[in-house]
Amino acid sequence: MRVAIIGFGAVGRGVAQVLVGSDSDFTLTAVADSRSACMDENGLNPAEVLRRKETTGLCGTEGLGISDILRFGEFDILIEVSPTNADGGEPALSTIRTVLGMGRHVVTSNKGPIACAFTELKALADQKGVILGYEATVAGAVPVMNGLRHGLAGNRIRSLHGILNGTCNYILTRMRDEGLTYHQALQEARDLGYAEADPTYDVKGIDTAIKLVIMANTLLGMNIALSDVEITGIDQITVEALNLAESEGSTIRLIGEIIPEKHQVRVSPRVISLDHPLVVDGTLNAISVCCDLAGHVTFIGRGAGSLPTASAILADLNSIRDCHGRGT
Question: What pTM was computed for the model?
Answer without folding.
Answer: 0.92
